[in-house]
Amino acid sequence: MVSRQAGQVLADNLRALRELSGLSLSELARRSGIAKGTLSQLESGTGNPTIETVFSLSNALGVPVSGLLTAPAESEVVLVRGAEVEVLSGTAVDLRMVRRLDLADTVVEVYDQRIRPGETQYSPGHTGREHVLVTEGVLRVGPPTEPYEVGPGDYVCFPAAGPHVYSALDGPVTSILLLEYPATGDRPAIGVHGD
To answer: What's in the keyword line of the UniProt record (predicted)?
Structure first.
């Protein structure tokens, strides 16, 4: 469940990005596949988004996930306390966005990622590349037809544009996920910087 504060950050960013893109709620609903009523709740700060919802909005708006989930920074020093980071949950994955890095031509989002056993997280695909470093457990990740099995200390990187899956084998998995997106010059700068 997303806290009231995190829900308000999402609400503010979603509304600003939608308006800067010149999209109505109806058009964003069509592009994202999310009901207009759900979008209205998210923009008012009363919704409870899932991983799938946030990634659908990211794709529909053409912005990195962090553009929806991070508030503008107030200091040059960044200290992230794990207990204070909101968890975004999906079918099998719990993500905590730790940091967003805006590089010259790339945006990198750093996540603490936990994969619960017994379920498979499916992604239809999104912009960029995924980098996964497993710290505990054994993970099956990548294209559904040819996934990779990676264990502690193993790293895999793959294009995220196509469908991909995450599933924990033999117990829970802890990993670091980096989402790498091309920076776009026309990306709105309001409420999207996590640095």
So the answer is: DNA-binding
Q: In CATH terms, is domain 82-182 a member of 3.40.50.300?
A: no
**With 0-12 CB in 10 A as exposed, 13-18 as middle and 19+ as buried, what is 154?**
middle
pTM here is 0.65
Tell me the per-residue pLDDT of 23-34, one tens digit each, with 9 for 90 and over: 999 999 999 999
- CA-nearest of 28, 38, 89, 88 to 59 is 28
Segment 127-175, tens digit of pLDDT: 899 999 999 999 999 999 999 999 999 999 999 999 999 999 999 999 9
Domain at 4-69, CATH class? mainly alpha
Return d(Cα 66, Cα 99) in angstroms, integer.
8
Number of H helices, E strands in the chain: 5, 8
Question: Distance (Å, rounded) from C-alpha 124 to C-alpha 104?
Answer: 28
Kindly state the tokens that stand for 169. 């084998």
pLDDT at 3 over 80: no
Q: Where in the chain is the domain with CATH 2.60.120.10?
A: 82-182
